[in-house]
Each structure stands twice: as C-alpha cells, then as structure tokens.
Protein 1
Amino acid sequence: MADTSAAPLLDRSRTIAPPGYNRWLVPPAALAIHLAIGQAYAFSVFNKPLGSLISGDPANPAPTDWTPTQIGFTFSIAIVLLGLSAALFGKWLERVGPRKAMLAASLCFGGGFLIAALGVSLHNIWLVYFGYGFVGGIGLGIGYISPVSTLIKWFPDRKGVATGMAIMGFGGGAMIGSPLAVALMNHFKGSAPQGVAPTFIAMGIIYLLFMQFGVWTIRVPADDWKPAGYVPNEEHSALITTGNVSADNAIKTPQFWLLWVVLLCNVTAGIGVLETASPLIQETFSDAAMGAGRGVTAAAAAGFVGLLSLFNLLGRFFWSSASDKLGRKPTYLIYFGLGVILYALIPTLGHGLQLTLFVVVACVIISMYGGGFATAPAFLSDLFGKYQVGAIHGRLLTAWSTAGVLGPLIVHLLHDNAKEKGLVGAAAYQNVFYTMAGLLVVGFLADLAVTAVNEKYQEKGPVTIEAGGH
Amino acid sequence: MNPNPNTTAPVATEASSGGSAVLAWLYVGIPLAWGVSQTFMKALALFK
C-alpha cells in the first residue's frame, strides 16, 4: 500500500477508498452535489421578485425594472454554460478526480449566487448574468458530471440504479430550492427590495456548505476493486464493451452522435411539456370549456406543475434502474415508442376534456423525460467503457444545451402561430405536441441505429485512470 | 473490471461502517423528503 499522506488533500490519490469501504456512501455524496445544483430548475421562482426590484410591486413593474425576457436569459446562460463546461472540463475531471471537481463546482455555484447578489444590489443585470449564469453555470456543468464516472466505477453491477439516484437529485433540487427561496425572500423582505439579494447570499452560503459533504465524502475505488461476486451482465452484452474508448475517440464514432440526437430529441420534446404545462392545462380545461367554476385554476395548474416535477424525479430513478434489467437501447426505444403515442394523445385528450387521463399521460411523458437524462451515463459506459465516461458524458450534455434553446423556440413559434390563427384551448397547442411526437420518431430511429462501437476506436493495451486526462 | 490487475493503487487508510452510510443518507434524504412533501402539498391543489 503506497503512502499517500504527503499528497495534497485534494489529490486524487487521497480519495482512493480503503478495503472495506462502504460503496453506499458514494450515492449520498453525489446527491449532495446534485440536490444543490438542481436548484437551477427553480430559478423561475425569482422571476417576479427580480422583475419588481424598483417598483416593489410584481403586478406593476416600473419602466426601469427588468423584463421577464431579460430575467429569463439568466437561466438560459446557465444551461448553455452547463453543457459547455461539462464538455470542456470532463477530461480534467477524469484526471484530478471527483473531489477537486466537486470543490470547484461548489465554489462556482455558491460564488455565482454571491456575485448575482451584488448584481441585484446594484441593479446590474450583467452582473447577474455573469454570476448566476456564467460562473454558476460552470458550477452546474462540473457538478453534474463530477460524480457520474465514480458511481459507474463503484456500481458496475447496477450502473443505472447508481447514476439514476444521483441524477434524480438534480430533479429533486428544484423541489428544495423553490420553497427555500420563497421562505428566505419572505424572511428578508423588510431588509432589501423583495428580499432577493440577501436570499442569494444565504443560498450561496447554504449550498456551498451543503455541497462540502459530497466533496469530503466522495471516494474512488482502487483500480483492482470490483463488487463481491460481480459477474458482468451477459444478457445485453452485444452493446456492452469490455474495451475502453477515450473521450477524443468517442466523438469520432457514429454511436456518440446517435446518442447525442437521442438526448436532443428526448429533452426538446420534454421541454415542450414543461414550458407549456401551466398555460396548457388552464387554457385546455378552462371555465369556458368545462363549465362555470369547473375549470382548472391557476393554483391547480401550479399543482399540475408540481406533480410533473415529482414524476420527473421518480422517472429518473425508475427508468434508469429498469434499464439495468431491460438494457439501455430497449429502454430508450420505450421512451420514444411510447412517447410518440402519448404526445400525439395529448391534444385528443384535451379536445375530449379528459382531465384525469390528460394528467396521467403528461406524468408518464415527464417520467420518461427524466429517465432519458438518467439512463444516458450508463448507456455511454456500456458503449465506451468506464475509462473516460465522465468526459464523454460531459460532451454529450451539449445536446441538453442545444435542446434548452431549441425546445422553447419551437414551442413559442408554434404556439404563437396557432394563436395568430385564432386557435384556442387544446387546438392552440396541437401542433406543438405533434411536432414533438415527430421529434421522438427521429429519436427512435437514432436509438435503433445504435450498434456496438468498432474496436478500432478502443485504447490499445491497459489503461489507468490517472492516464485518463492527459 | 480492471484492465491492469497488477496495478498497485495507493489507498486511503480509513474504512467506513454501515452507520456512517445511514447518516449520509439522512443528510441528503431529509432535505429531499422536505422538498418532495412541499411539492406534493402543492400538487394536491390539482385534485381539489
């Protein structure tokens, strides 16, 4: 056993687990990161307060108050930076290990809040963009991929379960971040406009500290470690490699780009539902359609959005775990095959005023949207090996960034076009859902085309993790 | 599976117990359960 006591505290060698280490400590460490950075999905809770910092009244913003478009741009920057930084820092992460990466993520994410707080205090939107969007977005990207390859190495027998648990945390983060932000803004309301700046400071500090648990708990397995009695799954072995492909070689393979299209289609379609959820259910099941007093209210629509968040979270764990048994490719075929039917059903259920079925179908759709995120790392590991799977995953996440721009664009274009034609209720959203169903057909075909990676792309000879990020 | 079984990796010295795993899960489980319960309460409005 080599002496590691002289190595710097953050050095990868200091994170290698001793014999007897309980691998079930690793998922909570990963969750501590993902639960924090998942707050990003709750950024919209700040929209109205940020838009009324000058007037003090969300219903009557002052001319100098920030517009919803200006504020919404903050989240877009963060999501674009998530994909870019995950792609750029993936190989660095593989080299330095998860602890240093998680620390960097916590400093960026927490620090981003603090810079944004200064921007709010000075009423300078560019500082908010730089803080929450740019610096915080880098924290999102590094944080998102930081535990993934470590989890895959600890759980080669349950890759889907392990990564599903972590990525479930990203879905759950919004559920914590949203009520926490509301509570803090109410608490600080008397001391600052809308209580936003002190809330940003408090959240930056809270998340920075919360994430330290992950930083200091995470451990990587020794190179020769494997679970007791572990036998590689033979059932779906055609797509499970025993070789290793580097991140640089992975992007030269058709399989990487097919998966990129798969993720792009799944996320773009899911955004179609998430972007429209509240107005969709209110306009489709309005008083005019359902009868006076029987329509879906704004509060009930918020409940619908909450329900979708729950199924987004549950889907991440359920579908990713199921993929361990079903195989990754068949699981994505279910997402897309079943998805096409369900997306196409939404307008029909709206026209028929079938509220209960409408809600059930939307929940299943969103569970598969979440499942698509959570199953991706295990699919990558199956195809490319675990050598640089974190870095490959980081590059794949550029599909998410693209979908983050493409999804809302498609939704707003089609919906505005329908409104201009005078369509209302379910009819105003019909083309949105049929277009998304069409996208899922593309995703289905891309998934169907995935085959085993050609051996010419694999690393020759043995690889070590330390060599992973040269 | 280790591609190079002869590698002698440096390892840290402390082991871990089941109790620490339980505490670790509580650390992340409690805030997650709080968030889920808050969301669930909000979702109930849909069924009123």
Note: Chain A touches chain B through 61 residues (CB under 8 Å).
Protein 2
Amino acid sequence: MTKIDYQTIREIAEHGPDDISEIYQFPAHLIYSSPATLAFNSPGAEGYGVKRAGLAVPESIMLIVAPGCCGRNTSLISRIKGYDHRFFYLMMDETDLITGRHLTKIPEAVKDVVDTLGYKPSVVMICITCVDALLGTDMERVCRKAEDFAKVRVRPCYMYALTREGRKPPMVHVRESLYSLLEPKPKVATSINILGFFAPLRKTELLDVFYRSGIKTIRQIGTCQTYDEFLNMAEANFNLVINPEAYHAAKQIHKRLGIPFVSLERFYGIERIHHQYQAISNVFHKQLDDEEMYQKAKNAIQELKELQPLSVAVGECLNANPFELALSLVEYGCQVKAIYANVDPSHFAYINALNELSPETKVYSNMEPTMLYYDGGEDEVDLAIGKDAIYYHDQSAHLNWNEDMQPFGYQGLIDLIEAIREAVK
Amino acid sequence: MKGLRKYLTPFAPDQSGAVSVLFSLSGLIVIIDAGGCTGNICGFDEPRWQTQKCAVFSAGLRDMDAIMGRDDRLIAKILKVVDRFDLEFIALIGTPVPAVIGTDYKGLARVLEKKTGLPVLPINTNGMALYDEGVEKAYSELIKAIVPEEETSQNGVVSVIGLTPLDYTKDEMDMIQATLSHTYKEVRMLGMSSIDDFKHLRQSEKIIVASPAGLKAAKLIKRRYHIPFEMLKLEKPNIAVTGSKVLILHQQVYANAIRESLNMCDKDIRVGTYFKLNKTLKEDHDIHFDDEDDLMNYIKEHNIDTVIGDMTYQPLIGQAKLIPLHHTAVSGDD
C-alpha cells in the first residue's frame, strides 16, 4: 500500500512559509486528476472560469479562438440559464499554429457571428488560450481590427492555464478586461461598487451597513441587468474589493477612472469579521454599527457548539479560505481532522493559529500524486465541507458550500452554521 | 467560414480519444498540458473517471517550461512517481502546448524507457484533431509496445477493437458483449477492462471492429499476427423511421450498422459523419462533413427529411425531423 504524502498543521507551521513542502507545490510534481481536482484543472467546469466570467457583462457574447480541445466542455456552461447561444468558436488547426492565420480570420468571424445573432451584442469577448500565449499574439490589436470591421466592441480575455501562478493569472486578467469597458462618468458620492465575484453576494449585512451610513446605490457586476447599468459602475465614489483576484482590476479602475478602493476579506471567524468592520469604520471616519449582527452570529455559534462533538473535513472547493474556515470551526469547538488544500505563504497566519489549537490536523493536497490511493478511510468524519472533501468522504454528512452566489460577513457565518445544522441533521 | 462554429461545441479531441483507450489499462497516463486539457478530458469526455480511479496526471506545464523546453523537469516528475505505483506502462499524451513547442515525444519515451524499464507510449495528439485520431494512435502504440511476439490463437476467443465510451454507452457495450457471447466462448473488449487483453491479443481467433478508429489497428493485427477481422453488426435498434430520405449522423461503423439493421429497401438511407469516413466501408452517397455549413447545405440540397443523430445537430437540420441518437464524442456524456 502506497503511503499518502501529507503533513500535519504542526509540521507545516514548524517549517514555516519559506520551507513549504513539495507536497503543496505544483511545479514539483505531476498533478493528479480526480473529481476533487476538477475545479483546479478545469475552472470552467464548475463555478466561474474564464469563459463564464468573460460573459459577466450583460448582453455580451464570446468567440473562443482556440484548438477544439479548449472549447470542449463549454457545452456544460451553455446549459446554465442565461448562457445559451452566447458561445461561438473559431477552431484552430495545425496550419494556424504555424502561420498565425487564425488571427486574420477573427474580424470576419466576429462579423459573421454578430450578423447571425440578429441583435448587436454589448461586447464580443475573444477568448484565446495557451497556444496564443506561446505565439505571443497581440490580441489587443486584433480586437481593435475586429472592432473596426464588425462595428461592435471587442475585448480579449486570456484563458492561459500556462500562466496560472504568474503575476497576472487568467482570473485576474479577465476582471481587468471586463472593467476596462467602463468609461469615465461624473462621480456620485452616494454610489459604490463591490468588486470581486461574478455572481452577486448572497444576503449580507455588508450592504445594509453601507446603506445605513448614507450610501444609496451599491452595484455589483452580477446584479447589472443591462449594459448601460454596467456602465454606471463608473460613477462610483469608491470600490469595495472582496476578492484578491479583483485587486488588479480595482487598481486599473483607480488609475483610469479615479475611483479609489478598499480591500476586504471574507472571514468566518466572528472576531475577525468584527475587527474588519471596525477597520472600515476607521477608514471612513464613520462608526459602522454591527452590534445586532454580531449578537446574531454569536447565537448561531452557540447553536454550533451544541452540536459538538463534530468532526469535520474541509476542502478548498468552497466559498472560503480553507485554513481560515478550519480555524473558525476549531474555535467554535469542532474537531477538524483533515484539510484538503494547497499551502501558500499567505495562509500562515491561520496555520500558526491552528497550530495552537489543532496541531494534528492533517493537510492533504488534492493534486499530489499519492492521493490516487486516498479514500478518506483513515480520517473518518461526521461532516465534509467542500466538493473535494465530499469526494473523499461520501459516507459523511455533506455540505458543498460552493454556490455561485457568495456568502459574506456575519450573515455568511450564520448561513454556514445553518447549513451545517441542516447537513448533520 | 471554415472552422467557425455557431451552433455546435467542438467535438471530442484526439487527446480524449487516446485516453479513452488507455484509461482502464493500469498505466501512468501523463497529459502534457497546463491542466485545462486534463480537466476537459477527464471531467467531460471520460465517464469512467467519476467512479473509477486511474493514474491520470497533468504534467502541470507552466510558461517557462514551454518556453525553455524543460523536458528534464517533466522526466524528473515522472520518475518521482513510477516507483510508487504498480504500473504496466507510461503513456505521454500530447496537447496543443507541446505541439507548438515541438516536443520530441519519441525522445522522451526512449529516455523514460531506459530509466524505468517500463514500456512508454508516445502519443503525439495535439488537441486539434478529432477523437478518432487519438483512438487510432493509442491502439497503434499499445499494439507495438504490449502485444508479445509469441502466442497462439485459441478457438472461441474474439476481441472487439475501436470500442470506447466516446462512441458507445455502457448499455450498448453490454449488449454487444452479450450478443457476441452467443457465438464466441470469450469476448474481450479491448481497452475496456485490463491490459491482459492486449498482452494476450494473439489468442484471438478474430477481431471485431467497432469504429473506423479501430480499423487501422485491426489491419496491423492482421498483417502482423494473421488474425482476421470483420466489422461490428448491431442488433436492430428501436428506431421508427417514417421519412423517405434519411441521413444517419454518427461514426461510420455505428451508422453503417444502424443502416444495415434498419434494412429498409424502400428508403434512401445515407451515412454522414464529421469523423473518419473510410472508403472501403462507405456506400455511394455517404458523405464526410467538416463544418456546420456543410451539413446545413447538404440537408437542403438533397432534401433530407429525416436525420438520425445527436440532439445537438438540431439547429443545423432545418425542417428535417431529428430522431435522437446520442453520441458522446459530439455532445458529451449523456
């Protein structure tokens, strides 16, 4: 029987952020493919990958210019409500690879697609993939040519899996591309945007907190129904960034449209949520009142404590930072037996805190080759949270917690606890 | 416009075809990609992946690996895992990235063979060709690397080649196996159970070919080992055809088998395919399509009133009636 490679929280903490084991480093090993890694290998297959994200702008369509294999799973997305007949393909062949001929066909292909639609889309996103990354294609220029020829806005988006861990990974780039469509507008002091995800936030006090402090309009790309509504995001007084992947886009918006931004993090630890609201209050020199929600969240935590003892496995295919979530659950009395996630230096604040409370928690990397032999048997738990954790623990109570609409703040914590209670019932 | 798809999503690519042949054979399958191709192959084209464990890996290429041609790193990653698994072979599956940088698959295979002592199958797929190309290449490499020179045939053993989940559902495979079992003592579905079926391929008294992608391998087997082959016949399907001019859209052997089983002399039944159309298996009016327009124009020009094919063809066939016939290589797992 092959031994599964993993480390405990204690071992990871002892080695520190400068000596992370090869277990958790992609370049060091082959990447195992199992249903637990699908979201990593093929982000478009679940949730929002580049293709689905590229269509976040209302009334837009996408032309995928790539070898056939890159567009293969797109029919899965086309089956989702709102995406039917929005994807089109210009398939590359070997001659295109050698000569770059496909680039000259794009303007005509855009026009052909737009003529077929019978309406003018707000924008045509051109999605290109790894081969054009290697060919060094200047897609901005190609898009300008296509705009002139087809008389429609054309923007690039880059599905470059090759640059996933680079300075500007595909999911960062696609946000920049989308928000580059915004044009300068007069600022409205009572208007703000939330940048981060493509689907809207679930019900959260974050919005109420700002409404109560005088903000009248809060826009998210996922709530914009029309292109004009999307363009109104340019009138915002400031942007709230709730996902680090939107940070570059926010910086670009600041530079181009003069809209400043504030970054927030999603936490499930009640005191971390509270401290973040206090920090926002300091930034805006205005006391944001979170007392009522703080108490509600405390009550929810009490309900979770009543479920103890509860052993849990936490994955990374969920709407949370797996280490922050694991820490929060341990703080609320759960026994977190296993975490399925890769470790990077940004996780160490949580890992060090976990080391104080739950040092023997095992940390597995879904992608590590020996996971071929792992079936969760030695880490039996009452509850698995996250799609990947569920894959290993199909006999345990299940909680996906990876829906498109994003939880946030105290309400996110309350909803999570409610979902846990439902799952283990 | 050539290559433009307005209604159909791209069909299963060659890399998916290759993996569909190798999936159940206890090999180390290394897809030389950045991750996305592996996601597509496993998550979309390989139904067994959801329920059956397989040593299928992405090479996890990154831009500098491709730019610098760091094959040594790939070799090191593979060497790191070979001792930890019980492997029959290593397969290197090509994708668009190695196609662009001109990866020397055969060179990689030679180095790995020398270092591991395992057979290494270099499969130079590129993600631009269709699945049947990949199926063909995988069979060819398997036969070259795995089938022993010495072994004699046994009466009553038949092997089916060209049968993959991209063409046949599990139920259809079970039906084929059951039907052949009436005639043969032992029916081996090559690529669907164990590598032993290839190791003992020479025990077969006959090869049954289930798709054009298996034909080249069948010919190779005949040439090398003097084992004859014949094309698959299907049981009469439960299809009621009312029209008079019918086009069957599928892979050629399956479509031919449907035509034969329908056995309707009073109707004009043609086979059309986006995949391999073998001259020796085609009838006069059978046709190969490349693009969406080809099919749309053909339906119009030839007054086709009935199409038997995958549901995704619906927007292309105008007023013709569509009789659904699922094809995983076209629309994905049912």
Note: Residues 157 and 186 of chain B are 5 Å apart (CA to CA).
